Amino acid sequence: MKNDLATAKRLREFRKEFVDNNVDNAGPMLNISKAKLNRMENGENAIDVNVVKILKTKYNLNQAWLFDNKGNKQIKDISKKTSLTTSIELGDRLDSMKTEILILTKNLNRAWEIIERHEKTIDRLEKALK
C-alpha cells in the first residue's frame, strides 16, 4: 500500500538529520533493507510500524510531526528525567499503539480512495457498455 508523499518526505528528512544521511547505512540501523527504506521514503510503500518504533525509541521521533506535520521533529526523552519507569513504559506502549492506529488509518483512507476511484471507473465503463 502506498504512503502519502508528504509523510514520505518527512521520513527521509528525519532519517537524514537524525539517523544517517546515507540510506545504505540507515537501512541496517532501522532493521530494514536499503531498498525497503527507499520505497518508504519515495511513498511507494507504507511506512513500517517497526521502523516508526525504532525511530521513536532510538531517535526520539515525534510521530505527530511525521504523520501530521505537527510539533517538532523530536520529542524530549522524559525517561531520563523521572523515576516513574512504569508510567513511562505504559505511555510508550500507548504511543506505540497510537502509531499503529495512525498508520492503519492512513492505509485504510488510501484504500478507500482507491476503491472510490475504481467504482468511478466501473460506473463509467458500465455506461459505455449500455
Word description of this protein:
This protein is mainly alpha-helical. The chain has a single domain, classed as 434 Repressor (Amino-terminal Domain) (Orthogonal Bundle). It contains six helices and no strands. The longest helix has 45 residues. It is elongated.
List the helices and strands and how they pair.
Elements lengths: L4 H15 L3 H7 L4 H8 L7 H11 L3 H6 L16 H45 L1
Helix pairs in contact: 2-3
CATH architecture group name:
Orthogonal Bundle
Shape estimate: elongated
Distance between the termini: 34 Å
Note the beta-strand portion: under 5%
Question: What structural keywords apply?
Answer:
single chain, 130 residues, mainly alpha, 434 Repressor (Amino-terminal Domain), 6 helices, 71% helix, elongated, Lambda_DNA-bd_dom_sf, HTH cro/C1-type domain-containing protein
Question: What is the compact description of this entry?
Answer:
With 130 residues, the chain is mainly alpha-helical.
